[in-house]
Amino acid sequence: MANGIGVGDEDYCGDNDEYRAALWNFTQQPVTIERGERIVQMIVMQREPVELEIVEKLEGKDRGGFGSTGSK
Fold first, then answer.
1. pLDDT-based confidence at 67, cuts 50/70/90?
2. pLDDT tens, 16-39?
3. 61: DSSP letter
């Protein structure tokens, strides 16, 4: 998959809802994927409810962006 991971929302359950995946063709040849082919997997995980607190300013130090958890 192009982004490596996808997240399905719990309310994504209508009759016309369909999971889709962005894929990357890393060859120079055309690739055709037919509807119903098994090309991705799903992992169902339990999630705990969270409570968010809205604040004017965060107290922690900046740690980067876009998936960055490293220290500076």
1. low
2. 887 777 788 889 999 998 988 888
3. P
Catalytic residue among 9, 11, 15, 62: 9
Any catalytic annotation for residue 11?
no
Residue 37 CA: distances (Å) to CA of 34, 40, 54, 61: 6, 9, 44, 46
Give the range of the structural domain holding residue 27, as residue numbers without chain letter: 1-45
Q: Would residue 59 count as lying in a domain? A: no
CB 41 within 8 A of CB 60: no
Residue 62 lies in a domain: no
- Three-state secondary structure along 5-36? CCCCCCCCCCCCCCCCCCCCCCCCCCCCCCCC
Whole-prediction pTM value? Answer: 0.40
| Total domains present in the chain | 1
